[in-house]
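Q: Now give one record:
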Amino acid sequence: MQMIFDISQDELPIFLAEVDEHLQTLDEILVELEHRSHDSDLLQNAFRAAHTLKGMAGMIGHHRMTNLTHALETAFDGLRKGQIEVSTALIDLCLDAVDGLRALREEVVSGSLSDYDPQPLIEAFADLSVSSAGHAPSHNRADIAPPPEPTPPQPAPSNGKQTLTIHAEIDARSVASAARAFQLMMILQELGEITAMQPPLEEIETARPVKTFTAQVLTTACEKTVLEKLGQISEIEKIEVQANGKGQLLVGAEDRPAAPSAAPQSPVSAGENAPPVAAAQGARGKNNGSTARGVEMTVRTSVERLDSLMNLVGELITDRNHLFQVRNRLEAKAGNDPLVENLAETVAHISRITDQLQEEVMRIRMLPIGNLLHKFPRMVRDMSQKAGKLVDVVIHGEDTELDRSMIEEINDPLIHLVRNAIDHGIEPPEERRAAGKPERGTVTLNAWHEQGRIILTVSDDGRGIDPAVLRKKVVQKGLMTAEEAAALTDEQAVDLIFLPGFSTAEKVTDISGRGVGMDIVQTNIQRVNGTIHIETAVGRGTTFQIVLPLTLAIVPTLLVRVGAATFAIPLVMVLETLRLSPADIKTIRQKPVTMLRGSVLPLVYLSELYNISENGHQRKRLFAVVIQSGKHRVGLVVDGFLGEEEVVVKSLGKLVGEIPGISSAAILGDGTITLIVDVPALLRLAGIH
């Protein structure tokens, strides 16, 4: 069945983005609310998110979404007023409603009626209200009576409240000006009682454009507080707050004086004794590029445009590298020529501009990893309930930024690691009590930048991984002999969980035991030039550490020469470089090795691996690139180093297909093509697992 909503194609992306934001907020608040049931700020934020969602659904005519959100909002109102107590059953019901709203959101995308029926949930909320408050809740629209016509400001009452007059001008370029007016109204409702408002609520809910918003509110808040709260809303050109003939003004990006309007003018203008008040940082995070009023000025654009821009910057980097080589050749031939000197200066300038442009484009593509991590509290709650365990989740470093494409790639591996931590890592409450631990386990997610890389950790304080158990399991499964298993170090035994199909779980669950699919986790991480390490202690817990590059599009590499061929090795995998002589190379079990600071370093000849003529190990002088993948540290033997270079990653395409040990290709500055080494796959090709 087709559904028609009162929303244009230009407004749709903004509507969906804001709905997603409010639904995610509700997810996070509800999980917190279960542990902080008397936190009035949490309740107020939950009510505000639900009320805003209801208003947005009402403005586009999505009645099924409006009715379900109203039921959720009524429950939050009951909690605020003390008519309903927080319980696990109530939180479950509210989370089901959030999931239902996500299903109803998809109706706006598809334009057709879904199979989801919100009525059972609406009735469940009604029954809850009846049993708690003794009367059935109303299922009419928002319980906000249309404010009366504006009246002159009243003197401050003796109870500490004062009447403030607020005048706001909404950006004429806003495609959701009615939603901005609704947000202004919601914040004023939080601060006090709205006694007058123009346009009235009924007009705002029609979604017709709103140019100016004027209201009077009876509140204990001061003018500065009101300005800070209202200043968090985007696409507002000017805000004036007036109290008893005195006021403050918040203006737009240029700090320009208020434009003439039909609304009453504030007695304070920009440049007078009351300066613009900077708004508090909004809930969305950093205010990069904020204006004097502290509002982040943003422009929404499609992902395809960002990808296209990144591709163009990649081509520019390739040409810059080519210019460097041309300049070097000309300087070698005619270094004193003034034209060559001018060219060198121009190339240097273009290089700086290219670097800055690349940095800016990368910054545009960067997203805080909190966008991914914030869904885990809800996920952990649901999984732990299913597993019969008590588990809390702690998140650090949610402001750490990485490329959007990288966030998409690590989503599934992180989900799997968290699932395994809950199902196999964290013990049941009775087992934790017997071990002298708190009955509630903890899963900790952490993210930070380190030397141009992203480090992610997933930790639990559970039972840990016992190497002895793994040795026993690998023999039982016929993957190793008892002698081979006994020869493994503890670290090597722990790494057995990355073997395909290997599991220590005694029974299969719908959450998954640690080991099920861990080979897929490792493969997905290695596919983006990342590595995964395990640190574990029996009885104390386990930490998985993931190391990732910042982006997939442009990769810093070390260029090496093998015969007449050139290879690019991602720098994120490189530990150091070595110069070798034939005397430095020994043999253990018919495999070449060398000693590096007292430790045995296995060697892999790229010339032999790829059957390249002029084998480097016949020469008097050899070089090795020491790389690390997982727990494996190996020296790749090459004929020489060509230096470091940022390369633009290019797919090999269907014509070439997959090459073992090679992930992709790149075009160098001189126009030649180099192959980018897939280090984990190369080690597997060399028989190192």
